Structure formats: structure tokens, C-alpha cells
């Protein structure tokens, strides 16, 4: 399982893709009015489209999103060909999570004014969040061509490169973004994830720590650093960082899942089970169900009935559903391994089969399967770290 991408989602769905909550051209006077759009809110009622745009962006900057949306709508009603108003309203829609409406507005802004970099950067960020990686790359390349000083465009393009597995290109883009915006916490966090994926865990820790220094309330950076400590086998520090991430953002299922797995690797199965249950209360996820089952079973509790009930919440029975069948007595280790069509699935299968052998008191086969998982899995997979933790317990 590509666990690392879960953490990426924690970063890019909040303040990243970069500048998700920053009004267009926030630091510049608008071309339409010559005013600084981040100045104090306009108190008087505007008389033209440009005035409503300025007041709307000021309102958005101050967190008054409903007021901002009303002003953007009024600006567009007064001037249906006002590209900057569509671009600004698209940013507001994106901040609300309405990606389809944001995309429509950025499309319109580009059609009206195809030589401005900002709508391409913004549309690229929406396409990134929708998983349209190739289309996002086209827009972000265009944004960089039009404005080579856009830190956000480099940052978001780095995320696309990372998704494509082009880690060195991703690191280069994140580094460029940091050069252009050295105080952007999420840019360091994103580069930290890329270094983690590359296996350079020490540099990843440096970047996550810098992100936290710049923004002590950055839950994603704490999650990333905790994840990196977890990959290094430092359960105590991982637990500390995951706990801080949960304190900052208690509604995110992934952070509860990550802390639960860290407790599991530390051998505290009873401590792991509640965190994994909390994660499942927020989001139905097959891997969380499997670790919840293992935490309960390794802690001496009956866990089969709950696993069966949890599995009924899943809409699909693709990988790793066969592992659930294994734990429920409906499959065998051989059939589970045969169902692992991809190399990454095979690595996971070896870990979960090793756990099955442990639960069935077959220490010899458990050690063999867990060792194969360590030899096979990518080092940024939870199964790799968990298999290593189990082997340490088996070989004190």
C-alpha cells in the first residue's frame, strides 16, 4: 500500500497545493484598479465590477468567505468578461472544497485572458486535487512559462512529479519553490515527503522540522515527521508527533490510523486498538480494519466478528480484501499470496501472512514470511516497519 500518499493528501488538501487560501496577486496592486487588494476592507458600497472584486478579495483575505463570494458574484454580474473576477471566485470555490465550480471558473478566466499565469496555476492545483495528474502538469508547466517566479506552481508541479515516481524532479521543484518562498512551511513538508520516498530519512526529518519551526500548528508536518520517525524505527518520537498532529487536527482518520500502527509496532496492542477504532469511525478503510483486527487479536481479544462487520462497510472487494478472507478463515496463505498481483501487494501479503502464522502459533513460518516482507517491501511502507518490529520481538 502506498502509505506515503496518504500523508501527501494531508498536506495538499489543507494549505497545499500551495497558496490554496491566498487571493490572486495578493502582494501586488490589481491591474484593474491600481489598489493593493490586501489593504483593509472596503467599507463603502462599490459602484463597479472592479470595486466588488477588490472588496471581495479583501473579505476573502479576512476569512469572510460568504461575503467574498457575494462580491465576486456581483463583479461577474456587472462584467461577465471580467477574467480576474472568475479567477478570484475560483479560489473561493476551491477553498470551500467545490472543485468542479472552481474548475469551471478557472476555465472561464483562462478563456478570457490566456496570458495570465495565475489561472493556470490555480487550475493546475484543482486538477492535482482531482487526481488528473497529466492535465495538472500541462497547466503548471504553462504557469511556470508565464511566471517563472511562481513558488506555488513549482510546489504543485513537484507533487505531480512525486506522484509519477519522478522523485529527483520533484525534489528539484520543491527546492526551487523554497528558494522563491523560503518561509513556506508546506513546501518544506512536501520536500520532506519526497526525501522520505527516496529513502533519505535524515534529510526528510530536517525538512519536516523546518516546516514545524515555520508553522508550529502545521499538522501535516507533524504527521510527516512522525511517519519518518516511524520508518526509522523510532516509535517513541513517532508517537509524540502523531499525537501532536491529532491534537491539531482530530478529525483526520489517517492520523489516528498512523498513531495506532505506531502503538502496534511498539508492542502496545491494547493501546493501538482504540486509535484504529477511532480512525474507522471517521473513515472505512481496509488496511485500518486489518490492523484493528491484529491489534485486538494480538492483545488476546476475539476480533473475527468485528472484522466481518467492518468488511461489510467496504464497497469493493479488491486488494487487500483477500487478506480479510484469510483472517476470517475463508482463504489460505497460498491463495492470499497468489492474489497479490503487484509487487507492492506481494510485499503486503507477506507481512499479513506472517501475522496469520503468529496468530496460529507457527513461529517458524511467521519469521520466514516477515523476513521476506522486510526484504521485499519499500522502506516507506508501514508493512516494512511493522514486519521489522515483529522480527525484533521474535528475535530479542
Question: Given the C-alpha coordinates, what overall shape results?
Answer: elongated
- Tell me about the biggest sheet? none
How many helix segments?
A: 22
Unreliable stretches covering 5 or more consecutive residues: 1-43
Proportion of residues in helical segments: over 70%
CATH topology of the domain at 19-111: Serine Threonine Protein Phosphatase 5, Tetratricopeptide repeat
Order of helices and strands: HHHHHHHHHHHHHHHHHHHHHH
Q: Strand content of the residues, in percent?
A: under 5%
What is the CATH domain class of the domain at 19-111?
Mainly Alpha
Span between termini: 28 Å
> What is the SS-derived class?
mainly alpha
Please identify, by name, the CATH architecture of the domain at 19-111: Alpha Horseshoe
- By DSSP, the count of extended strands is 0
**Please, what is the average pLDDT?**
90
Amino acid at each position: 500500500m502506498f502509505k506515503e500518499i496518504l500523508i501527501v493528501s494531508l498536506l495538499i488538501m489543507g494549505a497545499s497545493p500551495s497558496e490554496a487560501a491566498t487571493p490572486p496577486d495578493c502582494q501586488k496592486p490589481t491591474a484593474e484598479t491600481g489598489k493593493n487588494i490586501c489593504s483593509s476592507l472596503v467599507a463603502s458600497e462599490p459602484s463597479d465590477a472592479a470595486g466588488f472584486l477588490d472588496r471581495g478579495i479583501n473579505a476573502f483575505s479576512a476569512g469572510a468567505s460568504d461575503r467574498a463570494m457575494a462580491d465576486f458574484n456581483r463583479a461577474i454580474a456587472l462584467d461577465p468578461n471580467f477574467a480576474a473576477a472568475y479567477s478570484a471566485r475560483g479560489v473561493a470555490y476551491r477553498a470551500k472544497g467545490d472543485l468542479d465550480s472552481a474548475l469551471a471558473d478557472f476555465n472561464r478566466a483562462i478563456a478570457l485572458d490566456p496570458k495570465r499565469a495565475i489561472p493556470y496555476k490555480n487550475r493546475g492545483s484543482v486538477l492535482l486535487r482531482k487526481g488528473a495528474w497529466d492535465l495538472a502538469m500541462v497547466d503548471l508547466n504553462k504557469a511556470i512559462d508565464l511566471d517563472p517566479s511562481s513558488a506555488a506552481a513549482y510546489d504543485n508541479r513537484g507533487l505531480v512529479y512525486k506522484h509519477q515516481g519522478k522523485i529527483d524532479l520533484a525534489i528539484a521543484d520543491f527546492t526551487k519553490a523554497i528558494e522563491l518562498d523560503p518561509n513556506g512551511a508546506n513546501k518544506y513538508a512536501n520536500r520532506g515527503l519526497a526525501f522520505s520516498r527516496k529513502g533519505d530519512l535524515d534529510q526528510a526529518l530536517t525538512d519536516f522540522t523546518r516546516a514545524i519551526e515555520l508553522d508550529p500548528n502545521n499538522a501535516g508536518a507533524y504527521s510527516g515527521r512522525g511517519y519518518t520517525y516511524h520508518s526509522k524505527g523510532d516509535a517513541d518520537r513517532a508517537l509524540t508527533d502523531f499525537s501532536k498532529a491529532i491534537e491539531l487536527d482530530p478529525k483526520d482518520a489517517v492520523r489516528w490510523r498512523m498513531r495506532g500502527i505506531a502503538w502496534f509496532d511498539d508492542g502496545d496492542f491494547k493501546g493501538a486498538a482504540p486509535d484504529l477504532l477511532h480512525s474507522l469511525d471517521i473513515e472505512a478503510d481496509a488496511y485500518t480494519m486489518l490492523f484493528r483486527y491484529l491489534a485486538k487479536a494480538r492483545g488476546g481479544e476475539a476480533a473475527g466478528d468485528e472484522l466481518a462487520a467492518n468488511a461489510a462497510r467496504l464497497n469493493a472487494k479488491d486488494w487487500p480484501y483477500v487478506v480479510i478472507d484469510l483472517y476470517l478463515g475463508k482463504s489460505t496463505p497460498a491463495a492470499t499470496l497468489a492474489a497479490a498481483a503487484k509487487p507492492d501487494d506481494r510485499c503486503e501479503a507477506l507481512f499479513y501472512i506472517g501475522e496469520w502464522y503468529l496468530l496460529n502459533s507457527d513461529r517458524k513460518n511467521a519469521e520466514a514470511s516477515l523476513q521476506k516482507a522486510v526484504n521485499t517491501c519499500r522502506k516507506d511502507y508501514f508493512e516494512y516497519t511493522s514486519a521489522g518490529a515483529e522480527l525484533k520481538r521474535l528475535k530479542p
